[in-house]
Specification:
34 strands; Neuraminidase; single chain; five-stranded antiparallel β-sheet; 60s Ribosomal Protein L30, Chain: A; 12 helices
């Protein structure tokens, strides 16, 4: 409520009768006349004229406290914050208890302009007045807490050296909402461009840049079907850069005010965007989406009424048939009674960056970090710190897969508008580093590209980490792989033997190099074989390790899918030890695999086993790496 309206409640005759002098702290007619004229202009939003007349009233009576208070409000509405602060101080020098809540208004202005020490004092001044309004008392106490945090943050800055992405990406137009593929070769941004047909003469479109050896190439308009005469903005892309979700508002096919839309990149071309419909979209506002690396989990902001505040963050996951589940509020550890927005889920799937105007920060919207624990619960948000956060609004931050670089938009150079910047993220704010495997899937016989299913599974927890597909037209894929865990990668396609790979990254927290590998899938036919890279045995033993269960269960599923197939399981060793020892060990290891399969109800008549010792090496035994490859279990089709 404006001060003028508050004064209206206390001194209604001031607004109704120009001569109600007894209700004011002045009896000078010239001051009252100027004051009442100023009120007319002020309530008409003519702040310049109102300011002139309030000052005229103060000139007529230096102790006219009402004129000071409404003048301060007029200065604030006209964004003259320094003058508003000085005017409040002048009013309270006359009578600090005349308008107690004014001290909170003053403190809010001082906080807004980064005068955190002064703000704390003003909040404390309000508490000294012993107000009986508990709501106001709570505001003052929270203001003190905010001020103390901001003072600490400013005195303990984090490392922050932002650099513009340069003229290839940034122009004098506004660029914002960067999105990045996991390999950091594709950058998509939203740009506010001039448009004669758009309301206000401008509209949002997507622009795309690709990185080469010289850095980011000149951004190009994404064109149709992504860009249309409507606004398209606040986009997110999957780790492989082949799925985009974005925000569109007030469209003919809309479910609510603002909806989420999706488009897929197939063979290098984007499909016509489609509304994600219910239950993702509602009759309210859904905006600012963030996709997980595999494109199967989606975070977004919404003002649907079941939330905790004005704008909350929600999450939904994709079903196997491509539909999306009912979105869930991610909870009150992250969401507050204020606004939480611009979520970014890192490819590690456990670090969330977002902005809030209610959590303790330095200004309007601050950027926070929350980390998911082993039970799937989000932890207490942490302010990312000063000077990344300031007394202004910060939002739209993303972090690369490696976790060392962050991208965001800023208008620090007014002549350039909002631009995209990058900076090295300090260590404590980094997520788990994520590597990736990139290549193409193809038929081993015809070399034709294949659209295949990818599953990345944590061998210890047996949890699915990533579930995606290669491009059905060109076979290209990119699978994100978080560090510090051991994983099974399974690539499958109906009519083919599955491909098995292992990524032993436990104990590796960073610097995991990308895996560039093409994947041949072998058609199911007699004589074809594959290596089962995720079957492990205890040292010098044929006892299966528990980490083998995931691969063995995949094999059971495969045999159930093709009930007429018969297979041979073969064991192989390195050349350490005698020939007879290794022969026996390899046979027993193959037998252990057969026993697991028959224990899972696979007919023993469909499985033979044999051991080859070290008679069939696939590489040299002269190195430990070579010997590790030679210690293997293979599957071969012997009857179809």
């Amino acid at each position: 409520m404006k001060i003028a309206l508050l004064i209206l409640l206390i001194h209604c005759s001031v607004y109704l009768k120009a001569n109600a002098q007894n209700d004011l702290t002045t009896d000078k007619k010239s001051a009252i006349k100027s004051y009442n004229e100023a009120l007319y202009y002020y309530t008409s939003n003519n702040y310049v004229k109102a300011i002139e007349l309030f000052n005229k009233a103060i000139t007529a009576d230096k102790n006219f406290i009402e004129a000071y208070l409404v003048l301060a409000e007029a200065y604030e509405d006209n964004k003259q914050y320094d003058k508003a602060i000085d005017t409040y101080h002048a009013a309270f020098a006359i009578n600090p208890g005349f308008y107690p809540y004014g001290h909170i208004r003053l403190a809010n202005l001082e906080f807004k302009t980064a005068r955190y020490s002064d703000a704390k004092k003003s909040y404390e001044e309000f508490l000294k007045l012993k107000s009986n309004n508990q709501k106001h008392i709570d505001k003052a106490k929270k203001g003190i807490e905010r001020s103390e945090f901001a003072m600490y943050a400013v005195n303990n800055p984090v490392d922050f050296k932002p650099e513009s992405l340069g003229p290839a990406v940034n122009t004098s137009e506004d660029e914002y909402w960067p999105s990045l593929s996991a390999d950091e070769n594709i950058l998509i941004i939203t740009r506010l461009v001039k448009s004669s047909s758009a309301y206000g003469g401008k509209q949002e479109d997507f622009f795309i840049s690709e990185k080469d050896k010289n850095g980011w190439g000149i951004v190009k308009n994404a064109g149709l079907p992504l860009n249309t005469p409507d606004n398209e903005g606040a986009q997110t892309i999957s780790g492989d850069g082949r799925l985009m979700v974005f925000t569109g508002c007030n469209r003919k096919d809309g479910v609510g005010r603002c909806d989420l839309y999706f488009s897929k990149k197939e063979g290098g071309k984007w499909t016509i965007p489609k509304n994600m419909e219910t239950p993702v979209n509602s009759r309210y506002k859904e905006t600012q989406p963030s996709l997980s690396a595999d494109g199967r989990t989606l975070y977004f902001a919404s003002d649907r009424p079941e939330g905790y505040g004005y704008l909350d963050i929600y999450v939904t996951t994709m079903n196997d048939d491509g539909t999306w589940r009912q979105p869930l509020n991610i909870g009150d550890k992250v969401n507050t009674r204020g606004h939480e927005m611009s979520p970014f889920i890192h490819p590690d799937n456990q670090t969330l960056y977002f902005s809030s105007d209610e959590l303790i920060g330095l200004g309007g919207f601050d950027i926070f970090i929350s980390r998911k624990d082993s039970t799937g619960q989000w932890g207490e948000p942490e302010n990312i710190g000063y000077p990344i956060n300031t007394n202004g609004d910060e939002y739209g931050l993303i972090v690369n897969a490696k976790g060392n670089l962050a991208y965001y938009a800023s208008d620090k150079d007014p002549k350039m508008g909002r631009d995209i910047f990058v900076f090295e993220l300090y260590k404590e704010a980094r997520p788990v580093e994520v590597s990736y495997m990139k290549g193409t899937v193809f038929d081993s016989d015809t070399k034709a590209p294949i659209g295949a299913e990818f599953e990345l599974i944590d061998l210890e927890s047996e949890k699915m980490i990533n579930n995606s597909r290669s491009d059905s037209i060109n076979g290209e894929f990119l699978v994100c792989i978080p560090t510090n865990r051991n994983y099974l990668l399974n690539v499958s396609k109906r009519g083919y033997l599955f491909y098995s790979d292992n990524f032993a990254l436990k104990g590796i927290f960073d610097k995991a190099e990308p895996f560039l590998k093409n994947v041949p899938l072998h058609p199911i036919k007699i004589g074809e074989s594959i290596i089962l890279r995720n079957i492990f045995f205890e040292f010098d033993s044929y006892k299966l390790k528990k980490e083998s269960k995931v691969e063995l269960d995949k094999l059971v599923l495969f045999l159930n899918q093709y009930p007429t197939i018969k297979i041979e399981i073969s064991g192989h060793t390195d050349n350490i030890g005698t020939e007879q020892y290794n022969q026996t060990l390899s046979e027993n290891r193959a037998k252990s695999v057969k026993e697991y399969l028959t224990g899972a109800s696979i007919s023993k008549d469909r499985i033979t086993f044999t051991g080859y010792g070290f008679s069939k090496p696939i590489t040299s035994n002269d190195t430990e790496a070579g010997r590790a490859q030679n210690r293997r279990t293979e599957l071969k089709i012997i009857e179809k």
